[in-house]
Each structure stands twice: as structure tokens, then as C-alpha cells.
Design goal:
The chain is of the alpha+beta class. The chain has ten helices and eight strands.
């Protein structure tokens, strides 16, 4: 099998997102470092197979409805989605912020469902987008509860793939804070000027299978009273979700003054 051909096909498909639903051959060729002629042939193959559609006037390409079949198959195969959705709706109604569900897959967390805030200023991520586990509240809420050897293996993988050196000591303190307080908080990590609070969701074996986060502009989350409201809403989800998942998803520890721990 020509692995380079397969990689190029996926490189093309990965270009498309909510922020870039359409693209032309020349721009795509520049983004994935291919010649326009090679890129054009690959686009033609994907169009002929019904994966892409081409606008007859602009000549731009976009994903076809065929990908919805794959997306629905993915969601149907994820009991996490069915388990979490009722609780996500509750969080959404109580906080009026964006609520996201992440699923642990290999070394990443994948956003598999999102309820978008109706506020004029809000935070939105693309469903299907992959994130590193050590970055952001949704990732650390998972990473903190993984076995130590697996967590270290994931960090080595990140460093090998990206060339980024992860600050182990700082991360160790952050993960301990998550375990002590049952939730993770982040400010401006995955997305600039965005903050989030997340709790882990556990599987039957006691290990994390994903996380639920509430996110919004940092300006709203820097308010201690507002942050406290969001964590209390997550605590309610923990109490309701625990019997379903087999493990408590949140262990809240308040200081004597009733303050909420912030691990950012």
C-alpha cells in the first residue's frame, strides 16, 4: 500500500473545519506542501468518490454529506455521548456557557459533542477536533486520573511528535490539584482569551474515558463568584452522574472560607 497517498488524502480532509468549510486547490496545495497538480488530482479523486463537492462557479471544494454517515456511526458507537448528554443540557441551562464533551482516544481528547452558548461573546470548538491532554482543563481532567506510566508515555509521545518540552514539575502540580479538588481550570491555553472548568467521566474500570467542560471568555471566568457558580453546577452533575458511570466524576474540596480551588 502506498502510505504516502493515504497520508495526503487525510491531510486534505483535515484542512476542512467550521472555520474553513471551503477551499480551492491552490490554497490547499500551499497548506499541505504539495504541488497544485498533485493536489488537484487528489481533490478530483475525492470528488469522484463523493467525499467532496465542487462549486461549479467558484471551483471551491467542500465536504459532502457522505461524511455525516461516518460522523453518525462514530456517535452511535459512543455510549459516552448518550450518558453525558442529559447532564450537559442541565449545565447548559444553568450556566449559559458552552458545554463540551471530550472522549479519550489514544493520546488525545476528541470533542465529540458541544452545546454552544447563545451569548454574543462565547467560546466554540469544532466537534471532531483533537487536543493534547496536558493542555486545557478538559485534557488535564482526564490526564490526572490516568495510570502514571500511561500519562508519562503520553507526554513522551507529545514531545516526540511536536518537539515541545513539557514542564513536568508545573504539570505535576496542576494534576495533583485536579486530584485534590476534582476539577481542572484553565485560562488561555487551548484558545486565547478562553477559560474552562472540566470534570472527568469514568468508565466501569475506574479509569477516565472522557471529560465534560464548561467554557467561556476569560473575562467572565475570572470572577470568583461566577467560577464558584460553574463549579457548583458541575458538582450537581457529579452527584447525578456517579451512579451511571460507576465512579464519582468530581470530588469537591472547599477551603474553610468556601472558596473554590483554581489550578491555573
Amino acid at each position: 500500500m502506498d502510505h504516502s497517498f493515504v497520508r495526503r488524502i487525510f491531510s486534505i480532509l483535515d484542512i476542512f473545519s467550521a472555520a474553513k468549510p471551503e477551499i480551492g486547490v491552490r490554497e490547499a496545495a500551499r497548506l499541505i506542501d504539495l504541488s497544485p497538480s498533485t493536489c488537484g488530482r487528489l481533490f478530483s479523486i475525492l470528488r469522484d468518490e463523493g467525499v467532496l463537492k465542487q462549486d461549479p462557479f467558484s471551483k471551491q471544494y467542500r465536504l459532502s454529506g457522505r461524511v455525516l454517515h461516518w460522523a453518525n456511526s462514530y456517535r452511535s458507537g459512543s455510549p459516552l455521548n448518550d450518558l453525558a448528554l442529559p447532564y450537559m443540557r442541565t449545565l447548559f441551562e444553568q450556566t449559559d456557557e458552552t458545554v463540551s464533551l471530550y472522549r479519550l482516544e489514544a493520546d488525545h481528547r476528541i470533542c465529540i459533542h458541544q452545546l454552544e452558548s447563545g451569548r454574543s461573546v462565547r467560546i466554540v470548538e469544532s466537534v471532531g477536533q483533537a487536543f493534547e491532554l496536558y493542555i486545557g482543563s478538559g485534557g488535564r481532567a482526564i490526564l490526572a486520573y490516568l495510570p502514571e506510566d500511561r500519562a508519562e508515555s503520553i507526554l513522551r509521545s507529545v514531545e516526540g511528535r511536536t518537539g515541545v518540552s513539557v514542564d513536568r514539575e508545573r504539570l505535576r502540580r496542576q494534576l495533583q490539584s485536579v486530584r485534590d479538588h476534582g476539577y481542572a481550570v484553565s485560562h488561555g491555553e487551548s484558545t486565547a482569551d478562553a477559560s474552562g472548568v472540566a470534570i472527568p467521566v469514568f468508565g466501569d474500570n475506574g479509569e477516565p474515558i472522557g471529560s465534560i467542560s464548561v467554557s467561556g471568555p476569560t473575562s467572565r471566568f475570572e470572577n470568583a463568584a461566577r467560577l464558584n457558580e460553574i463549579v457548583k453546577a458541575l458538582e450537581k452533575v457529579r452527584r447525578d452522574l456517579s451512579p451511571c458511570s460507576g465512579q464519582p466524576v468530581l470530588r469537591m474540596i472547599h477551603s474553610g472560607k468556601g472558596e473554590i480551588q483554581n489550578d491555573a
